[in-house]
Amino acid sequence: MKKEISESRIVFIGICVVMMATSIFIFTKSLSQERSSISNELFAKKVSGTEAVFPDIAQEKEVFALAGKAKLLGKQSTYSSSERTLSNFYKRRAYPGAPPKIPHEVQPDMVGGNNCLTCHDNGGYVAKFSAYTPVTPHPGMENCRQCHVPETTDALFQETDWNTFDPPEIGHSALHGSPPPIPHSLQLRGNCLACHGGAAAVREIRSSHPERINCRQCHVYMK
Ligand code: HEC
Ligand code: HEC
Ligand code: HEC
Ligand code: HEC
Description:
Strand order of the largest sheet: 1-2
Oligomer: single chain
Strand content: under 5%
Structural class: mainly alpha
Order of helices and strands: HHHHHEEH
Distance between the termini: 66 Å
Bound molecules: heme C
Number of strands: 2
Number of domains: 2
Largest sheet: 2 strands, antiparallel
Radius of gyration: 27 Å
């Protein structure tokens, strides 16, 4: 009697082991298939040049555009009287996400490219305008005046009831001292250090650690 029980137990344990091995095999196989199909899809989008479909994934090139200057930006900590604040930042924009107007004189034939990038690619202090130059957050776009225009009148072309809306709030860290999430869209905001590092960065959002160049390793995107 005793012998019979232990035999059927061995058979039972054997079946369990086989079933467990099978399910682990099926599970890992389907997991790896799922992964490769995702990366294949991403790759296909990349090679066909439509990576903009994934604005919050495919912006590595922009994110690291200022990596070589990160240390320098970290040293530019002398706050001048012309320091920018969030409210100044938004005063030049029709609404959060809109291109700021050009606040300084520009020659009519200065359309973009190096005319603007001599200053806006590197930043730095311009005595003539008594201000630090904000670095362009989208280094790939060169036809600047397609989107940025100087203000030429105070009046409206036509009456309108348009109102702007509030920008997203800052300071939503999960715990005291943990990295706050990115509260804004990344459209035309790929070059993080342009706005978050150096003397031209807005005071409230100037990062204390521009040298940690891989921002999105710690800061996640908040939808
Ligand atoms: C001589 C250097 C220099 C050149 C050339 C220059 N800029 Fe600027 N730009 C500045 C400085 C400095 C500021 C900051 C001015 C301030 O805040 O009062 C600025 C501010 C701006 C801003 C406002 C950014 C913001 O968020 O407030 C825009 C937009 C801009 N420039 C666009 C352009 C365009 C487009 C061109 C080319 C047609 C150009 N700039 C050429 C130095 C320059
Ligand atoms: C396709 C439209 C477009 C083009 C072209 C473009 N910009 Fe912009 N730019 C924007 C928008 C939109 C913003 C606002 C981003 C935001 O605040 O979310 C912006 C923001 C900026 C800022 C503000 C950064 C800050 O810290 O406040 C600067 C400076 C700037 N652009 C410079 C340039 C220069 C210089 C060029 C050309 C070399 C250029 N832009 C080309 C749309 C454009
Ligand atoms: C055109 C300028 C600009 C660019 C480029 C930009 N940001 Fe921001 N960021 C802002 C502004 C302005 C705020 C404040 C909220 C708002 O108004 O959108 C902000 C807020 C944040 C905050 C929240 C800070 C806090 O104290 O809660 C984080 C984190 C952040 N950004 C990370 C990033 C990262 C990472 C990138 C690059 C992928 C980036 N930002 C690119 C302008 C910018
Ligand atoms: C290794 C992780 C890590 C990386 C990488 C990182 N951050 Fe942070 N960040 C943090 C933490 C943690 C805080 C919160 C600090 C605190 O509360 O004292 C923070 C805070 C911030 C803030 C709020 C203001 C401040 O300095 O406290 C901004 C803005 C910011 N980071 C932007 C950036 C940008 C832009 C980059 C890339 C150039 C970046 N961070 C890279 C961990 C990181």
